[in-house]
Write a structure and sequence with these properties.
The chain is mainly alpha-helical. The protein has helices spanning about 5-15, 45-50, 60-70, 75-90, 95-105, 115-125, 130-135, 145-160, 160-175, 180-195, 200-210, 215-230, 230-245, 250-265, 270-280, 285-300, 305-315, 320-335, 340-350, 360-370, 375-385, 390-405, 410-420, 430-445, 450-460, 465-480, 485-490, 500-510.
Length: about 525
């Protein structure tokens, strides 16, 4: 496993977790192979094929590893390393750590400092920097190398431990382990993470003073630091310096980062120029690169370029993953091009890709934002008819739209659908304003049986409250039923009668008289 790529990947992840102003993948060149997953070339069942489907992060991969050995299969170090690499790439860090620890425990191979660095970084991600410190301190002296020191620094950086990072960096300098741009990149990531953008250029200057050549990532972090504080002159200064360096090969994502900040500053001409330079450096089959350029053009409102690049991507990349369709649909919805989005949805449906609710949900949200609630509802119903899962949030959004239009019967139906799905969406809570509107309408217009069924289902999502009781009381009163039992239940739930309760009961008595 390439330790340099490993360390760089970690530092990139740190930047992404800091919620910086551009996606992680813009700061580095993603290999084309990132769009595919490792499989056995022979077509036989492999250990990877057993572990890969275990996508739930709470599912342990250890039983699969043990069963593989108990079944008499061979375990190859290279395959385990590729599995760890792929799990990390897909952010399944707990499972990656399980594989690494299993390798170590079973003595599959003698860990070098590179394997220790991988495990140390995974420990930091899963259990925190304190556990990573313990692991590092327990290493033999010959394993405390620049790789493991760098991995621990990355743990501190990722968790924004400024003092520990600076202290650890000083140790690395004293031991001669700070001669790589990766170390300085880590510190620039730290300052980015904590919002101290003004310190990033100082680190770049220190690198050059210490005769450490900044790499592409070093310059891109610095470009980001200037862009984050809207210093376009600073962005251009670093970009021009970078272009002059003989050891730097300009990459598409560098110009994409600059274009992002030009767009934010309203400098359309400069943005387009940067995007053209970015496209010129884009490898033909780099789908992720196309996705970023499509998003950037969409943010400029440039439909023609969005469609042109989508056409190029479709012809260049044999396989389109769901992420490609998500990017394109998000861009079309942003542009208000829902008819074009409908065409892309049809392409996705015929692509053979696995179902991913995020794909159609983009269009559902787009319909809702345009007030096309009937279309949104029809799409949700079609998905359910096909046995595809939908989310309560989607139905709740449509319900809110119908309510705002005064179409309460449709709002009630959509909210019923949302509530029926809450079991599969742990933590979901319905919009209080929508629930309030639906309950008020049901209390005044709904049939008693319908109201009781709705409130009963709602109880599974939120606790009984006064408004729910008021709705039941009003519905029962309109149906000529006694409400003493409801009032007793309300009291048992420690919900006192308020002025509104008395008003409902008083109005009823007046009507009876």
């Amino acid at each position: 496993m390439d330790s340099r790529f490993f360390s760089l990947l970690n530092r990139l992840s740190s930047l992404r977790e800091s919620k910086q102003l551009f996606p992680e993948s813009l700061v580095r060149k993603i290999p084309i192979s990132n769009r595919t997953y490792y499989t056995s070339r022979s077509g036989k069942l492999s250990l990877y094929n057993k572990i890969s489907p275990l996508g739930n992060p709470n599912t342990s991969v250890v039983p699969e590893l043990d069963n593989w050995v108990l079944s008499g299969n061979k375990v190859r170090v290279a395959e385990l390393q590729r599995i760890i690499h792929d799990l990390r790439k897909r952010k399944r860090f707990t499972q990656a750590l399980e594989v690494s620890e299993w390798m170590n425990k079973k003595g599959i191979c003698v860990f070098s400092s590179t394997e220790h660095a991988v495990q140390l970084d995974l420990i930091g991600r899963v259990r925190g920097f304190l556990s990573a410190e313990i692991y590092f301190n327990n290493l033999q002296n010959h394993d405390q190398t620049d790789k493991t020191y760098g991995a621990l620094l990355n743990c501190y950086v990722r968790q924004r431990q400024t003092d520990k990072s600076l202290s650890h960096l000083q140790k690395m300098k004293e031991m001669g382990f700070a001669s790589s741009p990766l170390t300085y990149n880590g510190m620039m990531c730290l300052y980015t993470n904590v919002g101290q953008y003004e310190k990033v250029p100082d680190v770049l200057a220190e690198m050059k003073q210490n005769n450490v050549y900044p790499d592409n990532f070093s310059y891109r972090i610095c470009i980001n630091s200037y862009g984050a504080v809207s210093d376009i002159e600073g962005v251009e200064k670093v970009l021009k310096e970078m272009e002059r360096q003989p050891h730097i090969s300009m990459e598409w994502n560098t110009y994409a980062v600059a274009a992002h900040f030009y767009i934010k500053a309203g400098l359309s001409d400069k943005a387009i120029e940067a995007l053209k330079k970015s496209e010129e450096r884009l490898e033909k089959r780099d789908g992720l690169g196309y996705n970023h350029l499509i998003s950037l053009y969409a943010s400029m409102g440039n439909k023609a370029e969005v469609l042109r690049l989508w056409g190029l991507e479709k012809s260049a990349c044999k396989k389109h993953i769901n992420r490609d369709y998500i990017t394109m649909l998000e861009s079309l919805v942003k542009l208000g091009e829902l008819e074009e989005a409908e065409k892309v949805i049809k392409e996705w449906e015929s692509s053979g890709n696995c179902y991913d609710l995020r794909v159609p949900n983009i269009v559902i949200v787009g319909y809702s934002e345009k007030g096309l609630f009937e279309k949104a509802q029809a799409m949700l119903e079609e998905l359910m008819e096909k046995g595809k899962p939908t989310t309560p949030n989607s139905w709740g959004t449509v319900a809110a739209g119908y309510m705002d239009k005064g179409e309460m019967e449709k709002a009630v139906e959509c909210m019923k659908a949302a509530i029926s799905l809450h079991v599969n969406s742990k933590g979901w809570k319905p919009n209080g304003r929508v629930i309030g509107g639906v309950l008020s309408w049901l209390g005044e217009k709904g049939r008693r049986e319908e109201v009781e069924a709705f409130v009963e289902s709602l109880r599974a999502v939120i606790p009984m409250n006064r408004l729910m009781y008021h709705t039941l009381i009003m519905a029962n009163i309109r149906a000529g039923k006694e409400v003493d039992e409801l009032l007793a239940r309300m009291k048992a739930d420690k919900i006192d009668e308020d002025a509104e309760t008395k008003k409902i009961l008083l109005g009823t008595r007046k009507n009876k008289n």
